[in-house]
Amino acid sequence: MPAIITDSFDYNDIVRVLDLDEAFVHHQIDALQPKYWRAVIKTKPKGLKIFAPVMVSGNRGINYMIYMLSRDWQITKKQRLLDYMYFGVYRQTDGFHLVGFMYLDSNPLAKPEKAFFTPHFL
Question: From 31, 65, 68, 118, which residue has the greatest number of CB atoms within 10 Å?
């Protein structure tokens, strides 16, 4: 679970922390790419394949869930990269978690997209 309580965080604070931790998360994703690339080469999936999430602890007390995903094998083979998405998990004192979401495309010509939503978990 996340180490810090984020009762006083607003949208701008969460986006700021996501921006500050972006390099850390990219480093983690770069380390995961070869492992999942080997799995994709082995299975050659048809359609979208989403791998089980990996949880990493950021250096600012926020945990991140990283999902590696592969499009159809033919598209993935041309790109030679996997797509990924990651979530910053935030804890509040009342037991709810806020999740900031960021999706980045492996295509270097695509612009990174950020979205934010607040699902609540008990």
Answer: 68
